[in-house]
Amino acid sequence: MQASSYFFKNRHAEKRLFLGRVLFAVVGVLILSGILITQMVRLQISQHEHYTVRSKDNRIRVLPLPPTRGQILDREGRALAENLPAYRLELIPNQVSDLTTTLAQIEAIVPLTELEKKRFDKAWKRRRGNFEPVPLKFRVNEEELAKVAVHQHRLEGVSISAHLSRHYPYGASTAHVLGYVGRIDQRDLASVEESNYAGTTHFGKTGIELSYEHELHGSVGEQRVETNAAGRKLRVVSSELPLPGQDIQLSLDIAFQQYVEQQLGSRAGSVVAMDPRNGEILAFVSKPSYDPNLFVNGISVADYQRLNTDKKRPLFNRSLKGQYPPGSTIKQLMVLAGLEYGVINRNHSMHCPGFYLLPNSDHRYRDWKRSGHGRTDLDKALVQSCDVYFYDLARNLGIDRIHEYLSQYGLGRKTGIDLQGERSGLLPSRAWKRAKKKEPWYPGETLITGIGQGFMLTTPLQLAHATSLLANRGKGFVPHLQLEAFSTPVMPITITGRDFRAVDDSMRRVTHSRFGTARSLGENHKFRIAGKTGTAQVYALSQNDEDEDAVISDDIPEHLRDHALFVGYAPAENPKISVAVIVEHGGSGGAVAAPLAGNIMQWWLDNGRPSPALNFDTGVPLNSKHHMSPKHAEGVNKP
Amino acid sequence: MMNLATLENDQRRNDSWISVQFQRIHIDLPLLGLLTLLASLGMLVLYSAGDADPNLIVKQVIRLSIAFAAMALFAQIPPALYQRYSIGVWIVTSLLLVAVLLVGSKGGGAQRWLDLGIVKFQPSELMKLTLPLVVAAWLARFPTPPMPKVVLSSLVLIAIPVLLIARQPDLGTSILMASSGLFVLFLSGLSWRWIFSGLGLVAAAAPALWYLMKDYQRQRVLTLLNPEADPFGAGYHIIQSKIAIGSGGLWGKGWLNGTQSHLDFLPERSTDFIFAVLAEEYGLMGVIPLLALYLAIVFRCLYIAAQATNLFNRTVAGSIGLTFFVYVFVNIGMVSGLLPVVGVPLPLVSYGGTSMVTLMAGFGILMSIHTHRKLIAR
Question: What is the DSSP letter of A401?
Fold first, then answer.
């Protein structure tokens, strides 16, 4: 049956049917091919641009080339902050098969601290890709480097990368000026253009490093590299070199700075030395200090604890932020205020019985000399630092005029130095007291303001600045650490020649007369020093307690002893240096602070190479041949 | 008979001397030429896709030689023998497929090989050849168009190996195999009513199919619909492949200059995704000639089918040609994001083993059909 149907099949009909199906298949094939072609045209022609961009995005990666940070130099060109080549041990995640083994192998060769291990763990967990190296140990020394190189073949995924690391060769000597750089964080980035910091690992955290971060940093470059799908760098397509950061030269003299430090010895305190003729800071010492190098790659918890809990507060920048009662070191300004407002004249004198009474009050305002100075005129009041004279002067001036006059010297206000975090001190006034204490001003407070006590607070920097202004008869510049040809003049203060001479004469006798509070000073130095001692109370001895006899004695524990202060300038006839010295708990200003100041001024006058004096109106060097327009039309130190 | 003879004479007159010589050794010269051209072009692309690795090329040349040898060998066997022994081979191969599921070795998550000690053997490859033969042989025993009973029995012949292979799992192969069997049915004159009701049934069963699919297969379908949903996971292959194709543009990036392929963005670039390498480096101007070459081969196959003298020969030849096209369509469709990712190589271009030998053996059968024709006619 089947066989017969096979034979009787109509061959032609069968073939026709088949050819029909083939034709149908051909149409199907053509339609499907058309679909493929359409899709190809869509991808390769219509969406070509889109896919070209995506293909580029795939393979081209932009790597930042961070700039080299500028150096910080002292006035003689010595590097205070430099970049040293350093080696870093890193692990490349995708090449490490067993982290524990690799770490153990490394540790057998190179010692790892707990801190390093902890930091590495953190970084390893937060790593971005498997190709970006994770740092394990910063600062690998030459010996460790050699050991790792020898064992490199069996240390999988371990690599050593060379980079530049910030180094402060003078360590603690410059810490309070330069500050330090540390690992960059989100807060740092918020203050700058973030794209310029791509690839930058460190940022100025304090000091000059922070103030001149912009200049020191430079501009980032970039390298376009071709990478494969795994992110491995294959070749550099193009690169734009970074613009290195500028070097910043400071007016600071590091040799001088170190000398000043040595003079302070182990005592806590602060010395600010300036050139009054141009506002340059010559030495800026705050003791104790710390090693800024500890902070560069992250300070250990133990080190930080040690610094932070130290009772002497090494991290605290006394020169910039320390607010001390100025004590008698403002008395010369008080005299000038009295002369200016006509409250006293140069011949005015009064009797000092050792205390002062306000009318209708039995409160005794005592003099440091309990027996009193007897008849006291302007000169004696300054040379021997008679308090009663200044109680009377202050009372006659009144707090409003005291505030008005002293503020011209920059007290109660930031000087504007090129360091951040400066404190403004406190120059009290009625308005201030009402606002802050919700209380009226009492007359007694005027008296103690007159001897630089009570509410009044100044920083060593402010004292040095005020002293500079006085040294130049009311003219001067904003103090600054960066060495510049030009400076910003401050609003000049009118001091008549006669008034100035009177005060200047007395200030010289502070150091040179046999009655002066700093009389030891004049004998030891060739040049003439104009100065004023001060003793600031730390422990409030009751002014009223008649039995209280111990003003300053060795019976008082050291941390309760008074601060010793001295301000002055030299040579008196042509001042080239002005200083403010505070020795914390040093006791008497005349005995402790003054000799120190004398040595400091001596050093600078013997060894220093001062910059030229500047025109006080324009801030341009006096011997400058070119006519320069004033850098700033207005002084910043407006009252 | 006269008609046929005239046709033969015309044919012979048109054929060159060299073509006639090749016919004597049962080789179809046009098809051989097209296949050689394709293989050469494929080698060029593979050289680039394999990052100019000479080992890869040497291996591929060896494989191609084996494949062309297989083609020549299969061309020598007269079609009648294929017709006679196909059912026996089908039974043996089906048993082997069962054996694969029971004792086969695993590779890449699927169980496809029988380890015969020296060589690993993939029974599914043998089945690819056998299936159209057996269906055609079965249908040739009955009048055309086939009766329902015959159609159903043919479907069983198709379903058994297809389901066995789908269980391995090897979706790509089972789809291709099913289509090779169905093409035979279609070409034999299966009535349109059957075809449409079959298509309707598939459409109705699609939701059920969804539940039968394995998770990774469903994922592939979802990925096709929206590759950007998981650009670094499931969508990665398709996205990178489309980027390669699209960025190639009209003229391409140049030979060995494809960034997608040479920088490792394109996965499986010497095997299943090699088309993207070609599209990236040669652009649309390389894609069109390749497609034209494939179409030429398909049309040559259909021509051979049209020239064939009996139902078995016709349907086998037509099925082999159309299945070849399905390979091309599925691969390019998958690489260009039209179809879900199923492991189907680009014929004669992709780097890869057994499937190329099977493919060329199929062309050998075609050549046999074409060159043994006069013997049958006489």
Answer: H
